[in-house]
Amino acid sequence: MKKSWWSIGAWTLSIVGCLALVACSPALDWRSVRPEHAPALQAVFPCKPKQVDRSLTLPALPGPPVTMHLVSCKVGESIWALSYFDAQEITRVPLALAADNRALRDNLEAVSRLGSPPAVATVSAEDLGPAQVIGMTPNALSRHWRLVGRRPAGNGESAPVEVHAWHFSHGLMVYQASLWRPMPPASAKDSTDSVETFIQGFKFSD
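RESULT FIELD:
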């Protein structure tokens, strides 16, 4: 059965749900990673990531389904993730980037409603400027977002969550790197270092 664009939100729900279940383990063990089916991309993760692939139909994109790849891992109460797919045609790349930017906020709003009344399920979104990834294909829709919402915390309660997300492309491949973590972070320095180390580790070799 084909999946809709909203099915990408199911992965988001799963990622955020994990935040309420994992034990605290703050040590970060950064290592270089070469994600499968991601030509020329090198990334860094602070833990050993796992990969899941699924076929999705994207209503925001005309044409056939795509294979969505998700690489992610967790340390303590934070999740590092990279999702990506082949847009298949150059004209679909800007459409995919625009849809990806909006879908993340929509999905986070849906997650927020799970743990609080809809009236207070608000998400703040801050555009931090162009995504900066070495070797990426330039595109005005390649952005770095910081979003703050809420996550389910069990027993009908919710807790604040911060998401940093970078949307970018390389050729026909469209990427979203993201860092999900509880609010407030352990410290301002740890917060800044984690964000910068993660995104600065992404680069394309051609």
